[in-house]
Amino acid sequence: QVQLVESGGGVVQPGRSLRLSCAASGFTFSSYGMHWVRQAPGKGLEWVAVISYGGSIKYYGDSVKGRFTISRDDSQNTLYLHMNSLRAEDTAVYYCARHNEIAVAGNDAFDIWGQGTMVTVSS
Amino acid sequence: QAGLTQPPSVSKGLRQTATLTCTGNSNNVGSQGALWLQQHQGHPPKLLSYRNNNRPSGISERLSASRSGNTASLTITGLQPEDEADYYCSAWDSSLSAWVFGGGTKLNVL
After folding, report:
1. A56 with A79: CB under 8 angstroms?
2. Minimal Cβ distance to B44: which of A47, A108, A113
3. CB-closest option in A47, A50, A63 to B100
């Protein structure tokens, strides 16, 4: 069945780096844009980044711009989020989600979600 | 990034109708439309509606979405206990070149 599985979360010190992965199965991964969305404990959803199918278009939320990089490896059906210069306020569950339309601005988005991976930034 | 505005909570009785609102501006909801997500405690979000009133397969017909100007709405009729959850709206913001979310509405079914 269609599935997204995140991994790579954990406890990391402020200023350090971490790479999250999202393994896709059950659909043609290379044909879809993909998002990262995060949720701090007890808080609402915050969009982090999106990458188009093919990987040529990427957009980021203001709070992570310049620190986080979204990428994909279609040969491995895997989405990545490279997080640098981590801060306490980056502590959250990180979800990957599928974008169900060619244009990353298209409204048919977030149709499939993973279970999330927790990132805790603390000294 | 400026987000979309949702009321923090709405309370309705069993079998009643709840209407949740989401207010943005002409760069997001007003031009791009909104989508709606439901999240139960401890679970990932689930898409309920996209492009204003398209429901993914398996989503109850008790849910309907609409838009008027810069405000999107999600109406849930015949409220059931399982409808108690957090509801989020989201839209693409063409001026920010970013997706934005509302702060979420906690729907309480009494």
Report:
1. no
2. A113
3. A47
Quote the strand ranges of B18-93, DSSP E.
Answer: 18-23, 35-39, 46-49, 63-68, 71-76, 85-93
Given an 8 Å threshold on Cβ–Cβ distance, is A107 in contact with B32? Answer: yes
- A45 close to B (CB below 8 A): yes
Contact yes or no for B58/B44 (Cβ under 8 A): no
Summarize pLDDT for A48-87 with one digit per residue, the tens: 999 999 999 999 999 999 999 999 999 999 999 999 999 9
The partner residue sitting opposite A46, judged by closest CB among B35, B54, B101, is B101
Read off the tokens for A58.
């990427």
DSSP string, A53-72: TTS--EEE-TTTTTTEEEEE
Q: Is B34's Cβ below 8 Å from some Cβ in A?
A: yes
Q: Between the CA of residue A31 and those of A39, A110, A115, B30, B44, what are the distances in Å?
A: 26, 15, 22, 28, 23
